[in-house]
Design brief:
Radius of gyration: 20 Å
CATH superfamily: Amino acid/polyamine transporter I
Helix content: over 70%
CATH topology: Amino acid/polyamine transporter I
Shape: globular
Number of helices: 17
CATH architecture: Up-down Bundle
Number of domains: 1
Oligomer: single chain
Distance between the termini: 44 Å
Order of helices and strands: HHHHEEHHHHHHHHHHHHH
């Protein structure tokens, strides 16, 4: 527990923010414009098999979920209102990183009889082979694949199940976890290749409903919006505190939790969502990269901001946010939406459906990572069993332990992925 906390603190407070900023700066000045006109996409229809837009919905399913709702609340509880500013700052920083990793995933993807597949582990292996040799690059690709599998089980199954169980029935969390595990098992039985179709129909209406209810709450309380924005900016840069240093500590927490929950939400920089984009039937890496940028913009500046504003408005009216505690973020979020707008039930259903969509998207990522490591069916079966088991475990696991594990995994993946992007920066074209 102490080791995990130390790893999460080190990665979240210093290493990960530095790597993101440094990588973004290097990519910004080293990425060149494409000299020739790229070919257009082969399939542009929304419902066409493996269309670029359907790949985007799969990526959004992996990003839109607990991170946009309870993840934002967790960042507010731990880092204060200033965490919202650092979410915004982080999303601006990682736009170029998201473009680069999606571009490379399409550039270095593979193809089988079902279509295209790929991800960060493939451009790490194939892209770095010329510089470090085949064995070394394959090793680092394998390390990333293992991390991707672990991340899919933690941030996918455990974190999402925890939020869903808290939302539906805090007193009978294990029952909710079991029901969600059955749904996950059914998705696996019907085949991971059908996941894109599920997310294509599920994500757009879910996101639409959530935008409507949050916008309603915000516009119904516009008189408090000015105070909320003042709190966000003042808290982000405030050094006022008793006996000096405490404020610096608080600001550090705002930066850490803002950026880390931002990564958890939009997955930019950690190398997971490129797996979804690699499946698109497109001949244009840059076109898919631009869709990756749209994914970040829709996720953090839009949805995360809406959640944060609702939570901070609710705190202004009812003092609901238990600052600097280990309180359950899902319960706090539900209480806020229930008291300020009467939307507790709608939000509960939304959290469950978002969680389910994220779980099955992460299972797809994990399946691709398993395929990278081995083509033997037994390893896929074992992974599917672990996915179902972790879904049940997530319903009863400690919230603090869960978030520390997620931060440690995402931080490690982000560092490794950013190093690969730095070495492959000359491969990207705008």
């Amino acid at each position: 527990m102490s080791f995990l906390r130390a790893a999460a603190d080190m990665l979240g407070s210093a290493v990960t923010p530095f790597m993101l900023i440094f990588t973004a700066a290097v990519l910004m000045f080293s990425t060149k414009r494409e000299k020739k006109q790229e070919k257009t996409t082969a399939h542009v229809g929304f419902f066409s098999k493996n269309s670029p837009v359907r790949a985007l919905t799969l990526a959004l399913a992996g990003t839109l979920g607990v991170g946009n709702i309870t993840g934002v609340t967790s960042a507010l509880i731990s880092g204060g209102p200033g965490a919202v500013f650092w979410m915004w700052a982080g999303s601006v920083i990682v736009i170029i990183i998201k473009y680069a990793e999606v571009y490379l995933s399409v550039l270095y993807r593979q193809r089988d009889r079902y279509g295209f597949f790929g991800g960060a582990m493939y451009y790490i292996r194939d892209g770095l082979s010329k510089r470090f040799g085949g064995r070394s690059s394959a090793f680092f690709g394998s390390v990333f694949a293992v991390l991707c599998i672990a991340n899919s089980l933690v941030t996918g199954n455990i974190v999402q199940s925890s939020a869903a169980s808290s939302a539906l029935s805090p007193k009978h969390r294990i029952v909710t976890g079991a029901i969600l595990a059955v749904l996950v098992l059914l998705s696996i039985i019907f085949g991971t290749r059908r996941i894109e179709r599920i997310t294509a129909y599920l994500i757009p209406p879910l996101a639409g409903v959530y935008i409507v209810i949050t916008a309603y709450v915000i516009f119904s309380n516009l008189s408090l919006a000015g105070e909320v924005f003042c709190d966000i900016f003042s808290s982000a840069f405030s050094y006022r505190a008793v006996l000096g240093g405490a404020a610096g500590f608080c600001m550090r927490d705002a930066v850490r939790y803002g950026i880390m929950r931002g990564i958890f939400s939009n997955e930019a920089g950690c190398g997971t969502s490129p797996t979804a984009h690699a499946s698109a039937e497109t001949e244009s890496p840059s076109a898919q990269g631009r869709l990756g940028i749209a994914e970040v913009v829709f996720d953090t500046p839009v949805l995360c901001t809406l959640t944060a504003l609702v939570m901070l408005i609710a705190d202004k009216k009812y003092a609901l946010i238990p600052w600097n505690t280990s309180s359950d973020a899902a319960s706090v979020t539900l209480s806020a939406f229930g008291m300020i707008g009467g939307f507790r039930e709608i939000l509960s259903v939304s959290i469950i459906l978002f969680a389910y969509a994220t779980i099955i998207a992460q299972i797809y990522y994990g399946t691709v990572a398993i395929g990278y490591l081995s083509q033997k069916k037994k390893w896929r079966v074992l992974y599917y069993i672990l996915s179902v088991v972790c879904t049940v475990i997530g319903s009863v696991v400690s919230s603090e332990l869960m978030w520390m594990g997620a931060d440690a995994l995402l931080g490690t993946m982000t560092v490794l992925n950013c190093l690969a992007l730095l070495f492959l920066r000359r491969e990207c074209r705008l």
